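Now for one record:
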Amino acid sequence: METKKRFFTIGEAAKRCDVATSTLRFYESKGLIASIRTHGNQRRYHAATLRTISVIRAAQKIGISLEEIKDALATLPDNRQPNKKDWERLSKQWAATLDQKINEMQRLRDNLDTCIGCGCLSLKSCRIFNPNDEIAAHGEGPRFLIEGFGDDSE
């Protein structure tokens, strides 16, 4: 009878989660995951940690920052690994964030031609960076690019 493995070396965990060992060390340094150490000071990851690594990767894939992921994981009681119910809650929360990012990207896409289509570099007709032509009061040219590089009043 084969028993389930409870702890994995860093190489085994990395292979199972399809990440580099340096990624696991990085996640650990940021407090996202934890390991135990053997007497020889080698890392061992509990099997449940593999689920956390997978949650981190899924969240990163949709653009959630590591800081946001860490905050979300901190809401889990007793620092435990996420279960199905936790994943449902986190994924709903992150789905809302993803929807917001999608809406922002669609807005940028829809307005992109007005930003680069004018060819004047004055940003006068740019609905993304200068929606109400507020920058025109500061003079002609790429004001966002040259701001802070000397006095432009002549």
